[in-house]
Amino acid sequence: MTATPKSVKATQYYNYSATQKANAEFLYRYFSARGWTRSAIAGMLGNMTVESYLLPDITEIGGGGGYGLVQWTPASKLINWTRANGLDYRTLTGQAARIQYEMTHGIQFYPSYTSSMTAAQYMKSNASAYTLAIVFLANYERPYDSNQPERGNIAMYWYNYLGTINLSDNTNNLHQNQHRIQRQNHKLRMAMCGKDQTFITITTEIKLVACGRMVKMV
Q1: Tens-digit pLDDT profile for residues 74-84
Q2: Residues carrying an active site annotation
Q3: What band does 19 get if pLDDT is binned at 50, 70 and 90?
Q4: How confident is the model at residue 207 (pLDDT cuts 50, 70, 90)?
Q5: 40 near 34, Cβ under 8 Å?
Q6: What DSSP line would sit under the chain, residue for residue?
Q7: Strand order in the sheet with 214-217
Q8: Radius of gyration from C-alpha coordinates of the chain
Q9: pLDDT at 63
C-alpha cells in the first residue's frame, strides 16, 4: 500500500513545544539504535501526537481507560509489563521498551485490511512517513475510524524535524537527555490548573493545559 498525502494542513503549520520535540528526539535516538528507519519512527510519532500529544504520562481524555504515548487500553498492558521488567511505566524509556517488545514479539501490530505489512517489515521500511503513519494506524492502533489523514501529515512534519538531528553520538545523548526529559515531563504532569497552569502549544489553533495526568482542551 502507498498512501497519498491529503491536503489537510501544510507540515510547516504545526508548532510543537520544546518538551514534545525533546520527547520526539529521545524516541528517535532510542528506536534508531534498534534498527528502525527514520520513516518508521516518524510514522509512529504521527500517531503518538494524535493519541497523547507525545506526552508519556497522560490518561485518555473523556475516559476509556487509555494511557501513555500510544494510549494502551487497558493501561495494565503497559503497567504490568514495565513493573515486571523493573521499568517506570510513566517514562519514555519504559514505554519505548514496551513498544519495542511488542514489535519484536508479535504483540499488538498485525497485518490488516489496509496493509499486509508485518512489524518486522514496518521497522525496516523506507516508505514515506505519511504511508507508514497510515500503516501504524491500521495495524497497531486500529481505531474504529481509520480515515485519519492528519496523522500522515503530522508524520511528515516529524520526518523533516528528525532529519535535523545528528545521531553520530547516539548512546551518550540518550543517557544525557533521559533525566532532563523526565524532569520536563514531570513538570508538565504536575502543573496546576490555575494561575500556574502550563500551556502546551499543539498547533496554532489548539492549546492544551496539563493538569496532573489529565490534559484538557482550552
Answers
A1: 999 999 999 99
A2: 51
A3: very high
A4: very low
A5: no
A6: ------SS--GGG----HHHHHHHHHHHHHHHTTT--HHHHHHHHHHHHHHHTT-SS-BPTTSSS-BTTTTBSSTHHHHHHHHHTT--TTSHHHHHHHHHHHHHTT-S----SS----HHHHHH--S-HHHHHHHHIIIII--S----HHHHHHHHHHHHHHTTS--TTHHHHHHHHHHHHHHHHHHHHT--SSTT-EEEESSSS-EEEEETTEEEE-
A7: 198-201, 207-211, 214-217
A8: 16
A9: 82
Is-cis flag, bond preceding 74, omega within 30? yes
Distance separating alpha carbons of residues 99 and 121, to the nearest angstrom: 15
CA angle 24, 42, 173 (to 5 degrees): 35
Does residue 20 carry a pLDDT above 90? yes
Rounded to an integer, what distance in angstroms lies between the CA atom of residue 55 and that of residue 217? 15
Per DSSP, the residues of 4-60 read ---SS--GGG----HHHHHHHHHHHHHHHTTT--HHHHHHHHHHHHHHHTT-SS-BP
d(CA 146, CA 149): 9
CA 143 to chain centre: 16
pLDDT in tens, 63-73: 889 999 999 99
